[in-house]
Amino acid sequence: MEKSTVFNNRLLPYLLLFPQLVITVVFFYWPASQAIWQSFLREDAFGLVSEFVGFENYTGLFAQPEYYKSMLTTAIFSTLVALLSLSIALLFASQADKNLKAAGAYKTLMIWPYAVAPAVAGVLWFFMFQPSLGMLSRPLRGMGIDWNPLLNANHAMILVVMASVWKQISYNFLFFLAGLQSIPKSVIEASAIDGARPMRRFWTIVFPLLSPTTFFLLVVNIVYVFFDTFGIIDAVTGGGPAGATTTMVYKVYADGRLGGDLGGSAAQSVVLMVIVIALTAIQFRYVERKVQY
Amino acid sequence: MVEHRPLSDFIAYAILTLGVFIVVFPVYLAFIASTHDAATVVGGHMPATPGTHTLENYYRAIFIGGSRTSREPVANMLINSFVSAIGIALGKIFISILSAYAVVYFRFPFRKTAFWIIFVTLMLPVEVRIYPTYKVVADLKLLDTYAGLILPLIASATGTLLFRQFFMTVPDELLEASRIDGAGPFRFFWDTLLPLSVTTMAALFVIQFIYGWNQYLWPLLITTKDSMQTIVIGIKKMLVATDELAEWQLAMATEVLAMLPPVAVVIFMQRLFVRGLVQTEK
User: Fold this and answer.
1) Which one of A102, A190, A291, B178 is CB 3.0 to 4.6 Å from B183, fit for a cystine?
2) What predicted TM-score, i.e. pTM, was given to this entire model?
3) A27: which chain B residues are within 8 Å (Cβ-Cβ)?
4) CB B252 within 8 A of CB B33
5) DSSP string for residues in B105-169
6) What is the dihedral of CA B136, B90, A169, A120, to 10 degrees?
7) Which residue of A has its CA nearest to B135?
């Protein structure tokens, strides 16, 4: 798609592009290329001398058991968050899609957590489940569970998953609701005339027609879990206990800050970049296909 | 709808009410905690109704700060959050509307290249390049400044793509008509295109304000002075001290204050928000 009528000034378009290009190059391309370059260097303890070491940082990285552990943590974490937040949001959206009088009010009440900062959401959930003063920790103890997300790895993971799901439901709800409302009512009526009950209609008609939305949301949710949950993890567990909630992004941060291992941290950044680019490419292939429909 | 059965409606209301309860409950608890004194909150037997220390807690949080560590009053953090969120939103709108105008309404060498240079930034969030970006900002002497908080976060393609998409839907006849009237690129932009773009700008502003307000990792890295800290960072620092001794009632008052502005934006500008969210994701 191109405009047929345009201006033909020579210098002006470059001036218009200038602010964005300068900011993009200075704060984006330059640091990104530095990350790639640094991933091939090793600095001495004082950061004064650095030497080119080829792929040593990468081989070092993939020899670390902790790195595989953070990959596994990321995989478990993103699977749980994506599955739970998508299915819960779909349940709520399919109910809100019924012709209810109060549908608008429910929609408003469901979507505002999108605006809550991840770190703030993390603190909310930590407050409820803090072992000694949390309102919901006492009933758990009453049931005989030795609840302590500060010491127990599984409890810590459950807590960050709950906080992340809570924060993401609103977004998925909004997109599912829009997806549901765009399904032609005539299709559903036709199957109702054929005698299909609501449940059967949902699984054989609505859910398949919703699959583009679901797939789009799946990719968005994985990207969300990778990056936006940093604040939740840092606020709730700080990556602990004993690295049980250290995701790949959290490890980039922790290794660069505490260990000062900039080469290793940069190598991890590059691995992450490759993963994100792959995810984005998948997303765009899907978008292209949707356009042809 | 196909059939209207009272039972189905009842189930829908029940499920949605449960959903709203799940969504509201954590925030309600935080609000309750912000209205009690420290001993009640730490004791672990907090009542489910508001207490009598509301004004005292909010006054202390906003104007005085905590007592145990040298901590900033929240009023200052709120100012920092407002400045950086509005700066990010306006900065992004400014640079991206200009670049989209150049890409759509002009033909020039390297037009496609420029577009791709901007487009690729969609793929790499700031989290994957934090330390090198930190170094650039440090070298530019922008640590602990508003410019350092704002500039690196406006380098992204979402705005440009959004305005480009919108400009493509503006009928060509408008440009032809204003050229017949003798308008140059400035006049056309200012008199025709900008007024048409108001809704798109507002939708982008809403989304970017929330994005800027909720930033965590970047401000955490580049603000070393307490006086430059944003409210989201401030809460975290309140709780780091020691869990048992942290002043939870003040931290929760700060939580409520940190949620209010972006949540108010979503609720009161819901249509712009939904529009912005759906468009920026395309």
Assistant:
1) B178
2) 0.89
3) 133, 136-137, 151-152, 155
4) yes
5) HB--TTHHHHHHHHHGGGG--GGGGHHHHHHHHHHTT-TTSHHHHHHHHH--SHHHHHHHHHHHH
6) 60
7) A31
Burial A178-199 (b: 16+ CB within 10 A, else e): ebbeeeeeeebeebbeeebeee
CB contacts, 8 Å: B103 with chain A = 13, 17
Cross-strand pairs, A52: A41
ipTM rounded to 2 decimals: 0.87
User: What are the tokens at A7?
Assistant: 């201006």
Could you read off the pLDDT of A191-201 as tens digits, one per residue? 888 888 888 88
C-alpha angle B163/B168/B169, rounded to 5°? 100
Q: How far is CA B118 from the centre of its chain?
A: 21
First to last CA, chain B: 29
Note which residues in 137-156 of chain B have CB less than 8 A from chain A: 137, 140, 151-152, 154-155
Q: What's the pLDDT tens digit per position in B267-282?
A: 888 888 888 887 776 4
- Residues A120-126 have a mean pLDDT of 91
3-state secondary structure of A2: coil
Each residue's pLDDT tens digit, B184-213:
889 999 998 999 999 989 989 998 999 999
| DSSP 8-state secondary structure symbol assigned to residue B101 | H
The total number of residues shown for chain A amounts to: 293
Q: Which chain A residue lies closest to B44 (C-alpha atoms)?
A: A133
Q: Nearest-CA neighbor of B219 among A226, A276, A166, A230? A: A230
